[in-house]
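We both want to read discrete structure tokens more fluently, so let's practise on a single case. Would you supply a protein for us yourself, any chain you care to pick? Would you write everything just below, so we can both look at the same thing?
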Amino acid sequence: MKRKKKAVIPLETLCDYLKHTPFDQYLTPVTLSEFASCFDEVVKSRPGKEIALDPHKVYVVCQGEVDLSTSYPEVEGKVEAKGFLCRKRRGDIINVTQTERDVKRRMTVKIGKVIDVAEDIITTGSGEADIVLVSSTMKSLNDFTAVHPELAAPIEAICISSIEDRLLTISFLKGVPRSKLNVLAAMCRYEAFDANQVVFSENSIGTKLYLVLSGTAQVVAKDKMSSSRDVESSSRPTSSYKRAIEKSIVLQRSFECGGNQKPLLSSAGEVTIAELTTGSFFGETALVFDIGRTCSVKTSEKSLFLTIDRTDFRNFLRICHTIEATLTTSIKKRMVSKLSSLGIPFLTGIPEEMLTSLATSVSIQEVPMDHVIFRQEDVGDAFYIIVHGSVRVETNHNEENNLGTLGPGQYFGEMSILFSDEHTRNATVVVSSDKTILLSIDKDSFQRIFVSSNNPVLAAEFELRVLKHSANLKHVLAHPLGVTSFRDFLEKEHAGENIDFWSAAEDFSSCTCESVRMEKAKSMWLLFCADYADRQVNLPHSMSAKLDEYINTKNQCDPELFDAARKEIFKLMERDNFA
């Protein structure tokens, strides 16, 4: 390795090197020349050689490639030296002040277990070409910004500010040990964009997460209907067209950003989904899924981003594998939350306290073209929601075979989790796009979260939304709004006493105090069952006589006292009113 204290690179060539860095977006030709003069040291090395860097300087990669590595734990606490982290290329910044000052933590052992294994960051020449780095001291940069104070903020953001503190603003990185977060900081890159510049385009393959350090950007999508189509009709009234756009917007937002901004239709054929400002992060789905971007991001002004590449992030998981589950859960929770606005059963109106439990229970499936999700006559065991891509619905009993295509925001397989028996599929579902992302929940998880929870109303609402006109009276009476609506209907039919008796009998059966039950029983007898009762219900004479005997003669009122009468009135309502 050769080290020279004086610059040997012509100023013009040095300026050309710096044009490939994020600094260039903030410099004019004049300030670029002055800024280049700050980098008065050149470091040269060859591939495979370790490079000793000064922890008090900032380096720019001008030529070749530099690998950053550290140690990370393996099975049973063993440590592997020089685990590859990432590769710095032309235009990348290496801030040794941060990577060595903050990452320099030696392995410590407590009770025989490794609790901190982040070693020094090791820099090594890579690739085939010789490596050329230029460096500047912080004093030289401070002197430059003193003359040009308008450039202080972006230069400080790139050279001085703590990347670790920025990373802590990303939800799925909270709780990551500081030593490991420092390693991730060394893997980050800076990217600067001019105003009105495209950061990435819709349908391009996503490979990075972005964190806004300064400036603003907009998340936009094409103003067009979602690729999904209902089986029933190929034409859409205006309201349905707008609803389809809203679905597409919500789903696109769930993939690229977590903003709460309301979508605005622009006049340029685009929909603005959200505005991203300092501290916002977006595009994290690219760290998990290898799919095209669901929308575009454009800068509104000069902006500086901190980026994490998917390949580098996966290397980072080798020393911090626990955040993979946290990231996946974070994405699922955001998807579930955004999908709830689409009127999808069991997601609509779900209480916040159940959201985390649901996000943990649902699975994300990434499936390729022509993959069969399930076949007709298979026993159903899961419910699916399409988040990205599309599926084709087919049946053996249809002459045209293909019933239609379902897209983002639509769902299928819902009948399988409504019935306790082994309900079979009535159609075959096949993936019809290059890559499709599905959220799924199995029957056991659904039963545990909704049916076995203390909020059975949610399960009833799910059943009503899915079954629609096929719902029976049991589903209607399981929901408070269903009871209210059916009572209003019965009052118009002059049969309101039936629902009132049924409700009173339900309440009676759950009463645990015997004296209160007796009081309720006598009240119900006088109001609904006695001769000339004000709201007499139509019970068989033998059933009324038995109730009279138990209530007024034996003074017995077991919780099951009105069960037979309740079932009798239910059948009456189901036959004469609900049908």
Remarks:
- The chain has 19 helices and 27 strands.
- The mean pLDDT is 78.
- The CA atoms of residues 168 and 175 lie 8 Å apart.
- The first strand starts at residue 2 and ends at 4.
